[in-house]
Design goal:
With 355 residues, the chain is α+β, with helices and mostly antiparallel strands. Helix content is 40%, strand content 12%. Strands 1, 2, 3, 4, 5 and 6 form a 6-stranded mixed sheet that branches. The longest helix is centred in the first third of the chain and has 17 residues. It binds iron/sulfur cluster. The site of iron/sulfur cluster has 14 residues, from helix 10 and helix 13.
Length: 355
């Protein structure tokens, strides 16, 4: 690869940065050329954008920084409020880590981020990607930033044929060879923008590409076949039951255990998640439960979940136990994760006329 790349690394950063200077995306977390990046906003956006699209993050980011504009504000927030504000973005450990990292920044660093990639790595929730992205974009440190867009662009520039995920070390090493000593943050964002707007997964628009002359996959033809992805193993199917227990115009909600999937989130009660439908196992109260015709499916990273919904009317509010009765008309404000919001909509539609 090095021999093939000998003519590439030298002018590629300049070509890409020149393109970025006129074509950069205007994003709410991104500093304008005349501004100094705000580390808090850079970090927050990088965490929100992991596993979530720019379109979905935009309004959530704006609402978040309006509510918690600084590390100190976030460090002082109630974790339950933060989790509710995160509802629907998925991968909820990210939200818990945001609060933990904000507390650490306030307690150990006087409310200011440490500036080096190595020091950032010691904060809660900072993996290699987040530390590199914040160090480069917020502080201009030369750090190698590889997200999914960068991964695709680099695999094509260097015509890396090894399938993902085994190709990751080679892609990172290749990205290292083209990361410039200055403007490393702009270079990272330029590569991300190129991947998002031109070097797209299925139909790269190579004729508009500012680094086409450096691209081995373009020279070889059919760059869209890269990066090669290893065949996915089918995900296991699991089953569960969600319980919709109404009392008058309220429904029972619980707080999920802090550890585990969707930990700490407000939710409808569930039974065990099992290899076969568990029906009424784990019902939150004795009642005349009825399995509804409707159900919901949800894909997690490691398995697919197929959930039935059981509904009943509670005779007395005292069955709530550690749960809380929540007005059905205000369920939008409960901060339910997507899975439970879907189940609540499905249950309401069917229960309205039947209970
Ligand atoms: Fe991607 Fe095509 Fe540009 Fe190569 S030439 S980096 S494949 S858009």
């Amino acid at each position: 690869m090095d021999a093939k790349r000998s003519s590439v690394a030298s002018d590629l950063p300049a070509d890409l940065l020149a393109w970025y200077d006129t074509h950069r995306r205007d994003l709410p977390w991104r500093a304008k050329p005349s501004e100094t990046p705000d580390p808090y906003r850079v970090w927050l956006s990088e965490v929100m954008l992991q596993q979530t699209t720019v379109a979905a993050v935009r309004p959530r980011f704006e609402a978040w920084v309006a509510r918690w504009p600084t590390f100190a504000d976030l460090a002082a927030a109630q974790e339950a409020d933060v989790m509710a504000a995160w509802a629907g973005l998925g991968y909820y450990a990210r939200a818990r880590n945001l609060v933990a990292a904000a507390k650490a920044v306030v307690a150990d660093h006087g409310g200011v981020f440490p500036t080096s990639e190595a020091a950032l790595r010691r904060l809660p929730g900072f993996g290699a990607y987040t530390a590199a992205a914040v160090a480069a974009i917020a502080f201009g440190e030369r750090a190698v930033v590889v997200d999914a867009n960068v991964e695709r662009v680099v695999a094509r520039l260097f015509a890396i044929e090894t399938p993902l995920p085994a190709a990751r070390p080679a892609i990172r090493a290749a990205a290292d060879t083209i990361t410039p000593a200055t403007r490393a943050g702009d270079f990272a964002q330029a590569t991300m923008d190129l991947g998002a707007t031109i070097c797209t997964p299925r139909a790269p628009r190579c004729l508009l590409c500012p680094v086409r002359r450096h691209c081995l996959a373009f020279a070889q033809g059919a760059p869209e076949r890269l990066p090669v992805k290893a065949a996915k193993r089918p995900r296991p199917q699991r089953h569960g039951t969600i319980f919709w227990l109404q009392h008058g115009q309220d429904v029972l909600l619980v707080r999920r255990p802090a550890k585990g999937l969707l930990g700490g989130m407000r939710a409808l009660p569930t039974g065990p998640w099992a290899d076969a439908p568990p029906d009424l196992d784990g019902a939150p109260a004795a009642a005349s439960w009825r399995m509804l015709d409707t159900g919901v499916t949800h894909g997690f990273t490691h398995f697919d979940l197929d959930l039935g919904i059981a509904a009943a009317q509670a005779d007395s509010p005292s069955v709530a136990g550690a749960g809380e009765w929540w007005p059905i008309a205000d369920l939008d404000t409960a901060g339910l994760p997507t899975l439970f919001a879907k189940a609540a909509r499905a249950a309401q539609t069917e229960v309205e006329t039947e209970i």
